Amino acid sequence: MPELPEVEAYRRLAERSVGRVVGRVELPDPWFLKGGLTPAMLGAALTGHRFAAFRRVGKLLLGDIDGGRRLGLRFGMTGTLVVDGRAALDGLLYAPARHDPAWERVRIAFVDGGSLVVRDPRRLGGVTLDPDLGRLGPDAAAITGDELAAALAGSTAPLKARLLDQSRVAGVGNLVADEVLWKAGLDPRRPAGSLAPTEVHLLCGTVHAVIADLVARGGSHRGDLTGERRRDGRCPQDGAPLTRSTVGGRTTWWCPVHQH
Q: Which domains does the chain have, with CATH numbers?
């Protein structure tokens, strides 16, 4: 958390900032700047400029600046976006429900009096300028069957681990991966390269459908499987006890009856 559905909600909220002039940039936590970026560099890139558009690639939020630069915002596990005092979501599954002002890592104040703020209790996110998009795979919400087949081809890594690899498929996180594989009926431990073409086609369609559904529901934690990801949890499809495993270094819940 947050995963692609959350960052898509952030993108939509960030659009409220398009066309507004940046008056100043406040950085109570300069450690949050990544890739050699300094407060002076960020201030120079933003102050007096406007955001022309906001885009999302995987879990990365991009703000196109009228001066030709590009702001990159990553949210780690607990990062949220707040624009003009309004949050994009009610909360995150693994983040504190309360707000502490000390968790504000960067504030972009507009001349009109509003602001765009990144809050991150655990400091696992970050701010960059002109991030390298070449390190990211195709966006999960728009990935084609051929692109997904290429991402999986020849790999002996577990299927779930391959889906979580942002250089292969950008935007899939732990909750989305479990939901997708559960709905597609695929064992998360299977070698990624073992899928038949028909299974790749099914998986691609399921990725698209699950992401669209979770965006509409308001977050990656709103999936049908999420409430059963616990001890004694049962498969919502067939009632079988769920299995808990560690796949790709992540806690994984899956149904041993219909996922194969």
A: 4-134 (3.20.190.10), 137-254 (1.10.8.50)
Active-site position among 3, 6, 8, 179: 3
Active site residue 250: yes
Whether 3 is a known active-site residue: answer yes
Instruction: Tell me the backbone φ, ψ of residue 102, rounded to 5 degrees.
Output: -70, -15
For the stretch 176-208, pLDDT in tens is: 999 999 999 999 999 999 999 999 999 999 999
Catalytic residue among 20, 56, 59, 74: 59
Contacts 24+ apart (CB under 8 A), 195-204: 195/152, 195/159, 197/149, 200/145, 200/148, 200/149, 200/152, 201/145, 203/148, 204/143, 204/144, 204/145, 204/148
Q: In whole angstroms, give the CA distance from residue 78 to residue 123.
A: 8
Confirm whether pTM is higher than 0.85.
Answer: yes
